[in-house]
Design brief:
This protein is an all-alpha fold. It has a domain at 24-53 and 66-88. The chain has 17 helices and 4 strands. A two-stranded antiparallel sheet has the order 1-2. α4 (93-114) packs antiparallel against α6 (140-154) and α6 runs parallel beside α17 (441-457). The longest helix has 35 residues, at 299-333. Keywords: Membrane, Transmembrane, Transmembrane helix. The chain crosses the membrane at residues 33-51, 63-83, 95-116, 148-168, 175-198, 227-243, 302-321, 383-406, 418-434, 440-461.
Length: 473
């Protein structure tokens, strides 16, 4: 019982001091609610990997425990913004525009929900699913509200960015550090489970199912390797962005990178492997270029490092050669056909996209403009999903939101942080080719949290919020 007051006191030490321009009593009340809402929000964000349900997939029409957690976490984020905005200058115009775009998309969802009864004939083709890759059937009456809720929860961390703009130090560097380390720690637990699955200690929860093939795929504590890959991508990114602030040192840093990258490889999730490799290559390329520019690049060190990595790769292949070979063969075979016009293109994704295009060809102008309000089939592409759910208007609004957020963040950070920001958006675009990142709330939580890290760790020398300088220490 004595540890709880001590923990509370430690957390209160992270609270920023009141500004001289604030009314003392009101400022302390608002600041207190905002601060504890921020703490709760970051706690949910960092604990989410460990709190995700392990077990059978609950199904498309069920709100599981993980969904409830993201809803609660999103609510705390919104409370932090609302209380932090009281007696404060308005939000930056860029953030206001993004919130306005989200509100318009919610209005489109409401319109689609009201129009369900009149679209029975248009929605009829979506009741027929030719293959498993089309996903389970989702009734429109469930799908439309769920998409609206998912939109709100996914972009909720924008509220924390809004708090950062109001109080430059409200989300202090230490809070960001603790949150980042907690996320990486949760990922390591999933890595351990994934390797135990490889060793046969823990049962697989996902399988390659093809003619003559029934092969387990490591997914950690998740039901699908994609969920594991998503977490690993952002953890690698977080480790590079916070290299100096996390204070892990080069040995621990690269040991963690090796574990995360190795786990990504055994997951056999192709897109995750590509994204993690891309993040490592781009950050290491920048580091080597900087060392070369300062003439601190030691050829002997580089040679030893390359030889060490090659030796580790050879040992790994020697120990796990048969395991890796069998999975690499299946991984490439599962791509299906490379013929864009074939139904087997990208393991059946071509069939989904072709059938969706035909359904749109028979649709009315309002469907083209505002969408169906939900995702009848699993689109396996983020742009296609947005077009189906919110139509051309949704595509324009989503692209506008991302462009505004990118430009806003870029204007608030130093030159050093701009490469990290560019890599972050490259990950989003790459992952969206065959996945749907904006429909995965925790993907967007991590994506927006990485914005917070970049804003906190690579700030430009400028005035923010209450006029106090927000500078990197």
């Amino acid at each position: 019982m004595t540890k709880l007051p001590l923990l509370t006191q430690r957390l209160k030490q992270l609270r920023p001091p009141p500004s001289a321009s604030d009314d003392p009593e009101q400022a302390e009340s608002i600041r207190g609610i905002t601060f504890w809402s921020v703490i709760a929000s970051l706690a949910f964000l960092s604990a989410k990997p460990l709190l995700d349900i392990i077990g059978e997939e609950p199904g498309a029409n069920v709100i599981d425990f993980g969904t409830i957690l993201t809803m609660i976490g999103g609510a705390f984020m919104v409370i932090a913004l609302l209380t932090g905005s009281l007696n404060a200058a308005r939000l930056p115009w860029s953030l206001f525009l993004i919130f306005a775009a989200v509100a318009i998309m919610l209005l489109l969802s409401a319109m689609s929900y009201l129009a369900i009864s009149s679209r029975g004939e248009l929605l009829e083709p979506f009741k027929h699913h030719r293959t498993v890759i089309f996903g389970p059937f989702v009734p429109p009456s469930i799908g439309v509200p769920r998409e609206a809720l998912r939109l709100i929860v996914s972009f909720a961390p924008l509220a924390l960015i809004g708090v950062m703009m109001r109080y430059g130090k409200a989300i202090a560097s230490r809070l960001l550090r603790y949150t980042a380390l907690a996320i990486v720690g949760g990922a390591l637990v999933h890595c351990l489970i994934a390797w135990l699955q490889v060793l046969g200690v823990v049962e697989y929860s996902f399988y390659f199912i093809m003619p003559g093939v029934y092969m387990g795929r490591p997914s950690g504590g998740y039901n699908h390797p994609m969920s594991l890959g998503r977490l690993l991508i952002f953890c690698v990114f977080i480790l590079y962005v916070g290299y100096e602030r996390l204070r892990l040192g080069p040995v621990k840093h690269y040991a963690l990178i090796a574990v995360l990258f190795g786990t990504t490889l055994i997951s056999t999730h192709r897109l995750s492997i590509i994204c993690v490799t891309m993040v490592i290559a781009l950050f290491e390329g920048r580091r080597l270029r900087a060392l070369r520019g300062r003439q601190r690049l030691n050829r002997k060190t580089v040679t030893v490092s390359v030889v060490g990595v090659a030796a580790l790769a050879l040992v790994t292949v020697g120990i796990m050669g048969d395991y890796l070979t069998s999975r690499v063969k299946v991984m490439f075979a599962a791509v299906g056909s490379w013929d864009v016009g074939s139904d087997r293109f990208l393991n059946g994704r071509g069939a989904v996209w072709t059938d969706t295009a035909r359904a749109f060809g028979k649709s009315t102008w309002d469907i083209w403009l505002f969408g169906f309000g939900y995702e009848p089939w699993d689109m396996h592409n983020d742009l296609a999903r947005i077009a189906v759910v919110w139509g051309a208007a949704g595509v324009i609004l989503t692209v506008a939101m991302l462009v505004i957020l990118y430009r806003f963040t870029r204007s608030m950070i130093s030159v050093r942080g701009r490469l990290a920001l560019a890599i972050l958006y490259l990950v989003l675009l790459s992952f969206g080719l065959t996945q749907k990142p904006t429909s995965y709330p925790y993907f967007m939580w991590l994506f927006l949290f990485c914005h917070m890290l970049i804003l906190g760790y690579y700030p430009a020398f400028r005035q923010v919020g209450n006029g106090e300088p927000w500078r990197e220490r």
